[in-house]
Design brief:
200 residues, alpha/beta, Helicase, Ruva Protein, domain 3, Dna Topoisomerase Vi A Subunit, Chain: A, domain 2, 2 domains, four-stranded parallel sheet
């Protein structure tokens, strides 16, 4: 990037490291930040710094929070007998947006991936088992992603949970609402058939 000033090149390179940001988008963002009012750029820098300093994993569920335990774990209106296990904090947000779930969460911060060197000891599975052994939880919902790593993680956790007397369930997989059968791939359609439910 010899045609950029050194500080600008570093900014573009830093922005390019963000997920989903290609080189052209990084360049556009960098020029925007240089062209916007100084206070706007400084406000962004402060927001990043404050988030890095104040946000940490909840000591109970490992969701990202600025208080400990987090507001979800503190909420007395939530069902203490159900824990939804997710891979990332953003998955908590996705499930909460549905408005359908009123239990607790446990965030693994990843999924099993031997090729990437991620084993059970790299996830928060031991903390999950400690919560289950307290005897208050009657159901664990495994809401890991429906990919190879997510499925392997769900199977591994299910095997550890069953001896504890906890009912283990998995999120249903299948067709999206509004989708057409002709556009569904064989795996998705097969899972939709296998997970069919009786109409009441």
């Amino acid at each position: 990037m010899w045609y950029y000033a050194e500080a600008l090149a570093r900014l573009i390179e830093a922005l390019h490291k963000l997920p989903g940001i290609g080189p052209k988008t990084a360049q556009r963002l960098a020029f925007h930040l240089l062209g916007c009012p100084e206070e706007e750029a400084l406000s962004l820098a402060r927001a990043i710094t404050e988030a890095r300093q104040q946000i940490h994993p909840c000591s109970v569920c490992a969701n990202l929070t600025d208080i400990d335990p987090c507001h979800l774990c503190r909420d007395p209106g939530r069902d203490q007998g159900v824990i939804c296990v997710v891979e990332q904090p953003r998955d908590v947000v996705a499930i909460e947006r549905t408005g359908e779930y009123r239990g607790l969460y446990h965030v693994l911060h990843g999924a099993l991936s031997p090729l990437d060197g991620i084993g059970p000891e790299d996830l928060r599975i031991d903390r999950l088992l400690a919560r289950l052994k307290q005897g208050q939880v009657r159901e664990g919902i495994l809401a890991t992603n429906p990919n190879t790593e997510g499925e392997a993680t769900a199977i591994y956790i299910a095997r550890l949970c069953r001896p504890l007397g906890v009912k283990v369930t998995r999120l249903a997989h299948g067709l999206p609402v509004g989708g057409d059968l002709e556009y569904a791939d064989e795996l998705t359609l097969g899972r939709a058939l296998a997970g069919r439910q009786e109409l009441v």
